[in-house]
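Hi V.,

You were right to ask for the full record rather than a summary. Here it is.
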Amino acid sequence: MKIKVCGMKYRENIIELSKLSIDFMGMIFYEKSARYVDELTLSDLDILPNQIKRVGVFVNAEADFILNKVNQYGLNIVQLHGHESPEFCRNLSKTIPIIKAFSIENTSDIQNTKKYEGLCEYFLFDTKTPQYGGSGQKFDWNILNEYKGATPFLLSGGISVDDADSIRSIDHPLFKGVDLNSKFEIRPGEKNIKQLEQFIKEIQYEQD
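Predicted structure:
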């Protein structure tokens, strides 16, 4: 199972996170977010091993802004968390892989993925709120059964250390991993490394 830890913004915290068995580390380039990356530099990320992919999270940003951050931070993949169109994703995907986020409240929200098929590396299903993610709230995970697409997906939205059993019970062939953020935080942008380590061990233990 893929593990993505999102909303990182402090160098020392990133150093500690780099020691864990995760697949993606996300940084948020959306100024209205409490986890907005405003002080990190490329050298702050040098500690990350190659197997941890650098993800930049953007909300309705211009392509030039996104590509500038890709170059500035050596991003491996971008996550689009706004209302980006399929055409925007098609054009951007020619340069860098994409995770497209979808806000989920009911089964009809799953249908919005259809026009993005074939354009993204992963979909990400998050809880629909007035904000763009980071709410700490869950949606009804039974809705995942309505997803009939072909793109693998990650699950986001209020996942905590207590959810390992529930996540292991999700039986969907395209469910590939989880996105961890606010429920593992000491403060916005700073993660509780011990809680993350505990959660990862529980997930990996059951898979072995």
